[in-house]
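Hi there, hope your week has been kind to you so far. Would you mind checking whether the tokens look sensible for this chain? I owe you a coffee for this, so here goes:
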Amino acid sequence: MGRSSNLKMIVREFKQDKAATVFFFSLTLLIAVIFVWAACLDTSKIMTVDILNQYAPPGKDGMLLGSEQGGRNILYLLVVGTRNSLSIGFAVTLLSQVIGISFGLIAGYYGGKVDNVMMRFLDFMMTLPMLMLIIVIVSIIPNYSMTSFVLIMSAFYWIGTARLIRSRTLAEANKEYILASKTLGTSDLVIIFRELLPNLSSLIIVEAILNLTSNIGIEVGLSFLGFGLPESVPSLGTLIGYAQEPEILTGKIWVWLPAALLILFFCVGFSYIGNVIRRAFDARQRLG
């Protein structure tokens, strides 16, 4: 019943916000097209250098968006790069959510000494310069891959989720339905996963959507600086990285502008949808 009412509230909120509806369907369609299209492309062939077509303008030799310094088709690089950036964003969000939620649930549910020890570890993690550590680790790992990059990012970007879930779990753990379950002798795992976790689902969904935007942005930023994916793996960040050269920034905008517009669309779209879903859950809480 609760899930049904949550869904109805979300649908109602989307109906009232036409921009959110447009973003939702546009993002869904675009992501589906990109993943299907990228699956049909041969990445090794796309990455083959064709120096004779270096910086070909849009429309030349059938290249709709032109080519970059290696003569590679920008449109194909954009499709595969977007697939890679989105895959990393989704994977990092999933892994960091699992780690953060698990950490926060355990710390908040058991409280006391367990919470104190876990929070001291969390405080230590927060003092670390995460971005610098990621750059250092990426620099020293030879022949790292997308999987390595996902694991490195996930190892650091779960802390915010853990603090948020722990704070909410502390409040939920003292409510009557949890205390009643403990009195009846229900095991801790059953209480956490069957009773506590579902009541945090709205918070988790909103947090995951907003973190997705952040994780995509972090990957793009690191790739732009040269510390993201390997050069042989295209991403939105590597395409925008070409704009570091003044000549390309001003005179060959077809190389980097499509990637920049896509990133802007994804970040604005995901953030907008996340805020709409948050409003829906807030409205449901106000209504009781």
User: Anything to note?
Assistant: The first helix runs from residue 2 to 16.
